[in-house]
Design brief:
This protein has about 60 residues and is mostly helical. The chain is built from 2 helices and no strands. It has helices at about 1-10, 15-60. The longest helix has about 45 residues, at about 15-60.
């Protein structure tokens, strides 16, 4: 039992998997917030383009 516990404490492969999982989670969170920020800014831009196009079309 003592040897098994000692092996588990020395084994670092599980820690590496957890670290990669945490890094992936942080990366995915930043990507998600970046896409959301870009989408909200882009939506405003396309709304302005739509309004200006409609105004230009109605003048003729």
């Amino acid at each position: 039992m003592k040897n098994t516990l000692h092996k588990l404490l020395k084994d670092k492969t599980g820690a590496t998997v957890v670290e990669y999982g945490l890094l992936l989670t942080v990366f995915a969170t930043f990507v998600l917030f970046g896409v959301r920020a870009l989408a909200s800014g882009s939506g405003s831009l396309w709304s302005q383009v739509s309004n200006k196009s409609a105004a230009a079309m109605s003048q003729h």
